[in-house]
From TrEMBL:
Record pathway: Pyrimidine metabolism; UMP biosynthesis via de novo pathway; (S)-dihydroorotate from bicarbonate: step 2/3
E.C. designation(s): 2.1.3.2
Chain positions recorded as carbamoyl phosphate binding sites: 54-55, 104, 132, 135, 263-264
Species: Paractinoplanes globisporus
The UniProt record lists the keyword Transferase: yes
Family annotation (PROSITE patterns): CARBAMOYLTRANSFERASE (PS00097)
Binding-site residues for L-aspartate, renumbered to this chain: 82, 165, 222
Enzyme class: transferase
Catalytic activity: carbamoyl phosphate + L-aspartate = N-carbamoyl-L-aspartate + phosphate + H(+)
Domain Aspartate/ornithine carbamoyltransferase carbamoyl-P binding: 2-144
Protein name: Aspartate carbamoyltransferase
Function summary: Catalyzes the condensation of carbamoyl phosphate and aspartate to form carbamoyl aspartate and inorganic phosphate, the committed step in the de novo pyrimidine nucleotide biosynthesis pathway.
């Protein structure tokens, strides 16, 4: 494949190849091989119109470990403030010889538009409420490395599904790889048709307590207050009481089950600090795995091997 705009761009064989390549990248890093010459002379542009900590830094680290030249573009402080369009910005980057553009944008579909304007690969680093496919890849990688498989895994994705690009990409990728996803949250934050529209096998529940004992993975989503309207979200206290993961709820999970969160977290809202920092939490591991997963994506897309 040339672009990674959606988790739907990945069939099972390609997704598995990316996860296997990420494992090789992690193994090399574990053997103190910090840098590979693979992308020497290639240019990766990080084009970020929305804030990011994990994704931007890990794409930069991944590209540098593959010896690519990295250009970091942030909309803040650029000519975007003078009204320059995404298309003109893209053509400027194209003129500078970008081999890959990693884009985060508040508009759903921005990576698809970008792919029609530039010659290089386009990688979606989060577009509006639509998708975040490399987050889904690092999440799948984390599940597979902790639990040994993806096929047949039972995964609950909990919380603000309505606004979550992480949830959408995870539903698509996990279903492709044979996992069974249950979306859990208040009815106002799970659009009635979302599960069926994304993947018909996806289940929906509004009762977290009844779902937990059957799960291998529980993935808590950030409550996206910046995208929220009052009608969706009655109160933080009520939300935490029904859908927050605290120690008492975590004990309802089977002993082997893991707790995930893509970050950034609202500690005390969707997850308590005790759970986030517990030995079952893979939150820090997910960040570390993000570098290996993004190395694999850059290596395979720019090397034409995916
Ligand atoms: N998980 C994630 O996308 O985090 P950032 O917004 O910090 O990149």
């Amino acid at each position: 494949i040339k672009h990674l705009r959606s988790a739907a761009d990945l069939d099972a064989a390609t997704a598995t190849l990316i996860l296997d390549t990420a494992a090789e990248m992690a193994a090399l890093a574990g053997r103190e091989v910090k840098k590979l010459p693979t992308l020497r002379g290639r240019t990766v542009v990080n084009l970020f119109y929305e804030d990011s900590t994990r994704t931007r830094i890990s794409f930069e680290a991944a590209a540098k470990r593959l010896s690519a030249d990295v250009i970091n573009f942030s909309a803040k402080g650029s000519s975007v403030s003078k009204g320059e369009s995404l298309k003109d910005t893209a053509l400027t980057l194209q003129a500078m010889g970008a081999d890959a553009v990693v884009i985060r944008h508040s508009a759903s579909g921005a990576p698809h538009r970008l792919a029609s304007w530039v010659d290089g690969s386009v990688i979606n680093a989060g577009d509006g409420t639509h998708e975040h496919p490399t987050q889904a890849l690092l999440d799948a990688y984390t599940m597979r490395s902790r639990l040994g498989r993806l096929d047949g895994l039972k995964v609950a994705i909990v919380g603000d599904v309505l606004h979550s690009r992480v949830a959408r990409s995870n539903v698509l990728l996990l279903s492709t790889l044979g996992a069974q996803v249950t979306l859990v949250g208040p009815p106002t934050l799970i659009p009635v048709d979302i599960a069926a529209a994304l993947e018909p096998k996806t289940k929906v529940s509004y009762d977290l307590d009844s779902v937990l004992p059957d799960m291998d993975v529980v993935m808590m989503l950030r409550v996206q207050t910046e995208r929220m309207q009052d009608s969706y979200f009655p109160s933080a206290r009520e939300y935490s009481r029904r859908y927050g993961l605290d120690l008492a709820r975590m004990r309802k999970l089977p002993e082997h089950a893991i707790v995930m969160h893509p970050g950034p977290m609202n500690r005390g809202m969707e997850i308590t600090p005790e759970v986030a920092d517990s030995s079952r939490s893979t939150i820090v591991e997910q960040v570390a795995n993000g570098v290996s997963a993004r190395m694999a994506v850059l290596y395979l897309l720019l090397g034409g091997k995916a």
